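Quick one: structure for this chain?
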Amino acid sequence: MPQHQLLSIEARSSGLAVVTLNRPQVLNALNTRLAIELTDFLTGAADERTSVRAVVLTGAGDRAFCAGADLKERETMSDDEWSQQHAIFERAFEAVLFCPVPIIIAVNGLAFGGGCELVAACDFAYAARSATFACREIKLAIFPGGSGTQMLPRTIGPKRANEMILTGESIDAATALSWGLVNRVVEDDVLAAAIRTGEMIASNGPLAVRQAKKSMRYSLDVDLRTGLIFEREAYHRLIGSEDRREGIQAFHEKRQPAFVGR
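Got it. Here's what it folds into:
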């Protein structure tokens, strides 16, 4: 089976990977194959030896980023098959959550169910003015099990997350911005805006970017003193790196640094 049937990947020379959920005919809904491909790609990107320094994730077409799980695929599943598939989905969401490479999502349309959960799980997101967001699972007597009950309260606060998850109602891009679910609402080309930011991140020291992301991600779940210990370990991890020496030398020589990820 080809490695990427449903995931389109554009690897740029800068180290930015533009990754597209490529099922526009079903609003880029997550099926088993797509979840496996996303997990495989992000697992590879997590390796420090990879050339990937940042990821922009979006959806094909202009109607949707991701409509959540593909319920047509699930229509004939037994309870055991449903459970087994969800274990695959869980690994995909964890790959997003814990990937050491920054992930920016460009929300080009609706982000419902698992699509909204992906937005909550990523490092930050930009949205088109027409984007809408919802966790509608509860309307179908199912559950936002792609980290939604964990990441939405952390991202937008518990009371707003309660409202979104327990009502299943949608919010528009302006509300998502004011609540902190997205960082920016883009009037023209949301993907281009995300790519510009991704290129900026990819141009920075890749080891420093990874360490900073890990320090911020894991420190959210510990007390301040433990977080500071993690931060200091991350700082000292970089002192002996080639990139740290190159960055300082480039500063003194007034040129752009050439980082190698070592």
